[in-house]
Amino acid sequence: MRRASFTDMNCSVAQTLEIVGEWWTLLIVRDALFGVTRFDDFSTRLGIARNVLTQRLDTLVEHGVMAREPYQEKPVRYDYRLTEKGRDLWTVLAALRQWGDRWAIDSEPPIVTEHRACGHTMTVEPVCSACGEHVTRSDLRVLPGPGADEHSPRPMAQSQ
After folding, report:
1. Which residues are registered as beta bridge partners of 67?
2. I need a labelling partner for 49 at 20 to 30 A (CA). Which of 2, 5, 60, 117 fits?
3. How far apart are the C-alpha atoms of 41 and 55, rounded to whole Å?
């Protein structure tokens, strides 16, 4: 069953879900970030049906998240490599993993990320890009951006 499309919604989250919101897609990107590039390796690691994997990879290529690079001519076979656009999903996946570590699993985290420079386990922390201060949702104000229109999502009025 095909889900509803968000293509007409003027919302960055909705438009992102148009590209990576299908089941399996972020797991494919996760494995690509782990260094997987070959169709058969994605299929084996994920246990995903080949037709579904083909569809998800085609979508990622179509949207510039991954690029196909031939590695064999007869028959033609491809590596699937993340583009800069795809590599930028790293912070999204890191945040999802951290949320899952806290709220979705009943044991210790199955993986951790270690900062090579200092050797410590690192986490993604929201900070202000201007001053470097750590921020929470209550520290932020949501305002219309330069691309806003009458259909853009707006925050509910916030009490003082």
Report:
1. 81
2. 5
3. 16
